[in-house]
Amino acid sequence: MSISQVSGVRIAGIASAVPRQVIESRSLEAVFGADEIPKVIKGTGVERRRVVPDGMCASDLCYAAGRQLLAETGCDPASVDSLIFVSQSHDYLLPATSCLLQDRLGLPVGCPSFDIALGCSGYVYGLWTAAGLIASGLSKRCLLAVGEVSTRRIGPRDRSAAMLFGDAGTATLLERSEPGAMPWTFSLGTDGSGGKHLIVPAGGSRLIPDAETGVEKMGSDGNPRRLDDLFMNGTEIFLFTLNRVPKLVKEVRETAGLSPEAIDAYVFHQANEFMLKHLAKNMQLPPEKVPLILRDFGNTSSASIPLTITQKLRDPLQSGSQTLLLGGFGVGLSWGAVTMQAGPMVIPELVEVDESVIPAPLYSRN
Amino acid sequence: MTRADFCRKLDSIMELPPGTIQGDERLEALESWDSLSLMAFIAMVDSEFDKRVAGEELARCKTVPDLIALVGDRVAA
Fold first, then answer.
1. Most buried in the list A9, A137, A152, A257, measured by CB within 10 Å?
2. Is the domain covering B3-74 a CATH 1.10.1760.20 domain?
3. Mutate to test the interface with B, among A238, A277, A281 (most CBs of B within 10 A)
């Protein structure tokens, strides 16, 4: 794994936005049967999720979070000189969604904007990229927009996924910090041999969507889905997590010279509650140091780490400093962890959006 | 771990009364063996033996003896 350290960057604030619509897992009894729901809730921990209406994108959620963050930090948009959008739910195949966000947020044309196409590991990769830009002097202030609308690509009768994923968008403002602060320590890795275990087959260049990719078929796992839908081999992903994450956590913590007790919170990608509780137990992490938000938000992919921070660590991070270990792992397969001292920082209250946030489309169907 | 202990672990995973699993059952015949049990089984092997089974081998398991064979020499007769 690639280990690196960087100094001279800080997080000025983090904001999260979610769609207003809540879907209770229990409301899907008609689809999956009343007996199935408690089992799925037990396995995943998800009792309800935020779900976008038709037409709402991750960029809309990130726009709402970004606008709130810029306002509450008092940051002049003209001072933002880089924008990174991390997601696998792009508005269009092209142009890059970050370009559209630059325009919407009123950032200057002198603000290079680009996308990073990652999911579960995306927030850590985003922090690594932004920190590199700032520490090197290539950028002075970076807005990192991280969001996902996974629910838009899940087969409605796919028991393995239909009640797991939720939607969210976040914005993190990074800037230069005073010298002397503890460096950020990163460990990142990739294993593309596991790519097939978490995939949306149609939509890219390998398989252009057509009438057939939109036809629901029974999968090898006994769940129905289209080639346009997400397929996840839960067993393989769980095994991957067990093989990688304990080593990742240990390596980044030891390189940073931090004892387990020195870390105030371990914020993991919220993949699945059963899996996270098992990991925490095996790594002997005190449960109160491993925040979980799956119950109310589900698995929000790349947004899950920042959403967990704003929902569970708002008070301590607004008022003081916290030593955090963030860890994201999954689709790619890709993983990354970082230790940092963070706070005090600005964390607005959770933003909730409705259809009015959806902009006019860039195309016409006529 | 003995075979008997292993079967008790399976009872616990499937929330069955201890002593239900005899050790020769076909998995598809067990009503309580589902995707949640599979996750709990992986977790049990990880905790008890510090071992991660291979996903493809686990997918090929059809019987309780197959599961025991997966763990190999960690389960004594």
1. A9
2. no
3. A238
